[in-house]
């Protein structure tokens, strides 16, 4: 099979790989490259790449449209078919990694349909624009958002959903643990330290049964209860679908260790503290100083003596020898008389 024109090429000067390795010529280009560069602590939401394989069904197209609505503003959707993308086969992830690098995406959704795996939705993540881990979801019993009417009209664009996972399988089976981790990472949205209660307007519920998993999204509505805590009412808003787990692939141990690295805290500086009023406060220890009185220091004009006082002292110094001579002559005269 001939490579697609969109696949990366080391000899093509217009390739995205070469563009990223190329140095910026302007300050704006440098800022853009710094923004796209991987960071130890990501503060922005993770962009999701949404695309279809060589064959796709109408069910998958409608489902990915609804999932794109859930991640509006944090997804890059591609409408064309991509025949060469087979992430579970060797070398089949090359085009997928290239598209992720071009869209600056950290996760992906791939819709494919085959005889063995009809309505197969593959969810996965990237690390440093390389395939990290992924899992296949075999979709069934799909219901779109439009089939629930106006149940989700109160949901605000960009709000963070609550995510609930019910069932022991999410804690005991490795494949289910991986599925839970990927679903959390894909739908978590932008990281936040505080959340307003009124901003929590929807919840995603995943229920693990013996043979399948139920994926439901419900709208949260607050009603008066006569107390400070409002009464919570859940109303299903879609999309709604069931899925079975297909193939899954975990990340290698060395790559996982590099991806899960945490930022080191700032090194503690001795004798430095933070104050609410003064900000940074430091304490300095100085040894006892000796000989400060003997040092020749500059004196300001305010400390200098007046000229009149200095002239009087000079006159007194001149008169002092005459007084001593008169006193000595008087003493000699007294001795002679005696």
UniProtKB/TrEMBL annotation:
It comes from the Eukaryota. GO terms for biological process: maturation of LSU-rRNA from tricistronic rRNA transcript (SSU-rRNA, 5.8S rRNA, LSU-rRNA); ribosomal large subunit assembly. It holds the Pfam family Brix. One of its GO terms (molecular function) is rRNA binding. Residues 299-338 are annotated as: Disordered. One of its GO terms (cellular component) is nucleolus. Keywords: Nucleus. Residues 308-319 have a biased composition (Basic and acidic residues). The keyword Metal-binding does not apply. Residues 46-254 form the Brix domain. Belongs to the RPF2 family. This is Ribosome production factor 2 homolog. The lineage of its organism: Eukaryota, Viridiplantae, Chlorophyta, Mamiellophyceae, Mamiellales.
């Amino acid at each position: 099979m001939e490579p697609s024109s969109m696949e990366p090429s080391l000899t093509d000067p217009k390739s995205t790989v070469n563009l990223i390795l190329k140095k910026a010529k302007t300050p704006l280009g440098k800022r853009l490259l710094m923004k796209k560069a991987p960071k130890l602590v990501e503060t922005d939401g993770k962009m999701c790449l949404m695309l279809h394989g060589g064959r796709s069904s109408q069910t998958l197209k409608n489902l990915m449209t609804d999932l794109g609505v859930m991640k509006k503003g944090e997804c890059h959707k591609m409408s064309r078919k991509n025949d060469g993308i087979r992430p579970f086969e060797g070398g089949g992830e090359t085009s997928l990694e290239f598209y992720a690098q071009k869209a600056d995406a950290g996760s992906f959704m791939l819709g494919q349909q085959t005889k063995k795996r009809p309505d197969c939705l593959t969810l996965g993540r990237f690390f440093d624009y390389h395939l990290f881990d992924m899992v296949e979801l075999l979709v069934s019993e799909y219901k779109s958002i439009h089939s629930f009417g106006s149940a989700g009209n109160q949901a605000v664009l960009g709000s963070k959903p609550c995510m609930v996972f019910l069932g022991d399988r999410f804690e005991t089976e490795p494949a289910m643990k991986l599925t839970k981790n990927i679903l959390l990472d894909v739908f978590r949205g932008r990281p936040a330290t505080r959340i307003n209660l009124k901003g929590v307007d929807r919840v995603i519920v995943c229920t693990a049964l013996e043979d399948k998993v139920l994926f439901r999204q419900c709208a949260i509505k607050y009603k008066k209860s006569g107390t400070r805590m409002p009464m919570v009412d859940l109303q299903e808003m879609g999309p709604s679908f069931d899925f079975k787990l297909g193939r899954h692939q975990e990340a290698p141990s060395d790559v996982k260790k590099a991806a899960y690295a945490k930022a080191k805290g700032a090194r503690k500086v001795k004798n430095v503290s933070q104050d609410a009023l003064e900000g940074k406060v430091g304490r300095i220890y100085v040894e006892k100083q000796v000989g400060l009185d003997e040092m020749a220091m500059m004196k300001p004009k305010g400390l200098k003596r007046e000229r009149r006082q200095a002239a009087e002292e000079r006159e007194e110094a001149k008169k002092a020898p005459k007084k001593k001579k008169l006193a000595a002559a008087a003493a000699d005269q007294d001795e002679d008389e005696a």
